[in-house]
Amino acid sequence: MNSLLTVSNTGTPITILEKSAYSQWLTAQNPLDQNWLQQTNYNGEGLALLPSFTAGKEGSLRQAVFVVEDANHYFACGDLINKLPAGEYLLEAAPEHQQAICFAWLVGAYQYAPYKTNHTEKTMPSLAVHTQELVDNAIKYAEATALVRDLVNTPAADMMPIDLGNTSQNLAETFGGNVSQIIGDDLLTQNYPTIHAVGRASINQPRLIDLTWGDKNHPQVTLVGKGVCFDSGGLDLKPAAGMRNMKKDMGGSAHVLGLARLIMSHNLPINLRVLIPAVENAVSNNAMRPGDVLTTRSGLTVEIDNTDAEGRLVLCDALTEADNDKPELIIDFATLTGAMRVALGTELPGFFSTSDEVAAGITEAGSKISDPVWRMPLYSPYNDLFKSTIADMANCGTGPFGGAITAALYLQRFVNKDTDWVHFDVMAFNIRALSGRPLGGEAFGIRAVFDYLQARYQ
């Protein structure tokens, strides 16, 4: 990424404007440029390339202009890097828009092509800006986004619990953290029974990945990420269409690793802990069955109503462990329910929180950086919907309604009522290509959460 965004005062000028400012800008240009834009039917939207009219340089590119509706939107310029000819460009834009432009420039360059045998790397243009701070900040956000995308996009055969463990180890080594893992039957001896139950049917051993970083004297923030590396549905087997993209069911773990990268790269003064229960929900002769009763790490018993509601099972043991430290804040990310997608669609992540102050802070932070999130209610009367006649609770509700809420309420049972807790239910996947956001794995909400944490702890 360092070659795509640099500090320099040279390059072909590229002027980025908002539509509302285009008319005023146009009147200040020389008649030759005005005539060129008119003759090429440019109407003040998108990209225009202005040629040189200087003797000896006729026809060469002299300037580029890119006009958008809202230059402060962090994806408005996401396709720009792919539209421009190769070369070095010098950014000309209002100072308040430059951070968004730099981020969009980098995430727009993202490609996932490790499995394409005939893939040729395109020579990408580079963008020059005036300050190193702009470059450094944009790279940190873009690298965290790319990490999430890469992890989600990787086929399940190459992104199993062991691979999530290796990724966590590499990330910790990069920033001076530590990783420990509890693997296989050791989950039983160390009392993580529901993580073990979900993952025991797979040849890929389940594990709890535990990454720590930072000064233990700083406030503790704990992140928990659902790491179901592939979800067949278990004995309640998914249909083919529902199983097709289940490589993304570890998207929660990808999100907390991307968020951890942001925290560590900015050296945020917190004591960070990241817990990832990593499993494959497979089918074998020892798979958990509908009707089984599991005893969780907290001691609460859970009747398995549906083996495809496994994410909350692996998360509940991890949340119990997270709360054991009494951190200032627990935040979990999970690709948990289709019900949330029905409620909010695939591009707006819903979240639940036990703290009005934290929820408002995250929402406000997201609105400033084009990372929108939407708070959903922890409507306690719905606790009745996952009662069990033979256990403390069932792992899902009795009907199809309010599924995202009942899943969140289930998880809330494993967090102390005095703990500030945030639960994100995300898609982790783009089902349509948008500016700067290609089809496939995507990071939702991590920039919003990081900016909130940065404002709170910096």
Shape: elongated
Spatial gap, N to C terminus: 26 Å
- Please give the domain count: 2
What portion of the residues fall into strands of 2 or more residues? 15-25%
For the residues shown, what is the average pLDDT? 96
Radius of gyration, in angstroms, nearest whole number: 24 Å
What is the correct CATH architecture of the largest domain?
3-Layer(aba) Sandwich
From the 3D structure, determine the CATH topology of the largest domain.
Answer: Aminopeptidase
- The number of E-state strands comes to 20
Q: What topology does this entry show?
A:
Layout: E1 5-7, E2 12-18, H1 19-27, H2 31-39, E3 46-51, E4 61-68, H3 80-83, E5 88-92, H4 98-107, E6 126-129, H5 132-153, H6 161-175, E7 178-183, H7 186-189, H8 193-199, E8 207-213, E9 220-225, E10 227-231, H9 240-243, H10 251-265, E11 271-281, E12 293-295, E13 301-303, H11 311-324, E14 329-334, H12 338-344, E15 350-353, H13 356-368, E16 374-375, E17 393-394, H14 403-412, E18 421-425, E19 429-430, E20 440-441, H15 446-457
Parallel strand pairs: 1-6, 2-4, 2-5, 5-6, 9-11, 9-14, 10-11, 13-17, 14-18, 15-16
Antiparallel strand pairs: 3-4, 7-8, 8-11, 12-13, 15-18, 19-20
